[in-house]
Specification:
Layout: H1 2-36, E1 66-75, E2 80-83, E3 92-96, E4 101-107, E5 111-117, E6 120-125, E7 129-132, H2 137-149, H3 156-169, H4 176-195, H5 207-213, E8 218-221, E9 226-229, H6 231-240, H7 247-256, H8 267-276, H9 278-284, H10 291-307, H11 321-339, H12 346-359
Antiparallel strand pairs: 1-4, 1-7, 2-3, 4-5, 5-6, 8-9
Helix pairs in contact: 3-4, 4-6, 6-7, 7-9, 8-9, 8-11, 9-10, 10-12, 11-12
């Protein structure tokens, strides 16, 4: 009995150990399985480029303006326009002339609102105008004049507008030096405008209107088919401002201004030209800046007449008593004027004058 009990106990213990061993192996296997299974690494998502939505272009706002009272501007550019709104794309209301002064009611960073006619207003860009004050008129007029004097050639439209401004401005400036300067520059610009008129187009718009408006200052040359500025206008300005340094420049331009007719071989005509141009300059400035050039011009023009004295086949001498008296007067005046010159080169010219007098006795 005891032996049976003991055997049962042994078998029971054996079964227990066996079961314990199975459980241990299973647990160990599970542990290995867990350790051998790699922990999954975090997978990075592929980078995606985000599409940027373009920002809408902001609309340009009209600069804020502020009302003003008692202010004026002066137009400083040709071909200027008043517009309905303060922007270059706005409708055009009216052209305004160079030098025109206009009252201002509003202004902003780039524009003036002006009254361009009774009860009518619009906007003009600040690039085409400047603030105006009566006490600065001379200064402003000089600035405008210098601006358009930098260019040696102006197109017809610009030259005609600048010429009109220079003529009007003379009545308002105070300094004689500026008046003289404006007067001379006006004749220069007027001459430039005439040169800009296409040949044979003088009867067409706008050239016809321009010639009519300036008719009192012009003379027509049948031989060349051109309009010239009258030379006596230069001499009139010279007589008004003889005491000023600019007077000599005025006299020289008068001497070089083209004459409207051809002499066609008539000796008295050539002598008259010499007396009225280079001779008149030397009459005022025998030792002037351009005296050598003036003397050379006279000598050069007399030379072919002297060369023809023997045959008298090219040049026509004075015919009657009155023409003869005129001839002698021109020679006498030229001789007197040239004799006052300090230049030793005058000897040749004086000899020519004497030869001419002897040749047409």
């Amino acid at each position: 009995m005891k032996k049976s009990y003991r055997n049962i106990l042994i078998v029971t213990i054996a079964i227990c150990f066996s079961a314990a061993g199975f459980v241990g192996e299973e647990t160990s296997a599970q542990t290995k399985t867990v350790k051998s299974t790699p922990t999954p690494k975090s997978v990075k998502s592929p980078t995606t480029t985000a599409k940027t939505t373009p920002k809408p272009t902001p609309k340009l706002k009209t600069p804020a303006s502020q009302p003003v009272t008692g202010e004026q501007i002066i137009v400083t550019a040709t071909a200027s326009l008043v517009r309905r709104e303060p922007k270059t794309s706005s409708a055009q209301l009216s052209p305004v002339k160079l030098g025109k002064t206009l009252p201002v009611s509003e202004k902003n960073a780039g524009w003036y609102k002006v009254e361009y006619a009774a009860g009518k207003s619009g906007w003009i860009p600040k690039t085409a105008a400047k603030d105006f004050a009566a006490e600065r008129r001379d200064e402003l007029y000089r600035e405008i004049t210098e601006k358009y004097s930098k260019s040696k050639t102006l197109d017809f439209a610009t030259a005609s507008e600048v010429s009109e401004f220079l003529e009007t401005a003379q009545a308002f400036v105070k300094k004689d030096s500026l008046k003289a300067d404006l007067s001379l520059r006006r004749l220069r610009v007027l001459k430039g405008a005439l040169k800009a008129i296409p040949a044979g187009k003088g009867e067409r718009f706008p050239y016809k209107n321009f010639l009519k408006a300036n008719g009192k200052d012009l003379v027509y040359s049948d031989s060349s088919g051109e309009w010239y500025v009258r030379s006596d206008l230069y001499w009139e300005i010279h007589s008004r401002f003889t005491a000023l340094p600019i007077a000599e420049e005025i006299a020289w331009e008068a001497a070089q201004n083209p004459t409207p007719s051809e002499c066609e071989g008539y000796v008295n005509c050539y002598l008259y030209r010499l007396r009225a141009t280079d001779g008149e300059y030397l009459n005022f400035y025998p030792n002037g800046k351009y005296s050598k050039k003036a003397l050379t011009n006279i000598t050069s023009l007399l030379q072919p007449i002297i060369a023809d004295l023997n045959e008298k086949s090219v040049y026509t001498p004075p015919a009657d008593i009155s023409d003869r008296a005129e001839f002698n007067r021109f020679l006498t005046e030229l001789r007197t004027i040239i004799s006052k010159m300090p230049d030793i080169a005058k000897a040749k010219t004086l000899q020519q004058i004497n030869q001419l007098g002897e040749g047409y006795k």
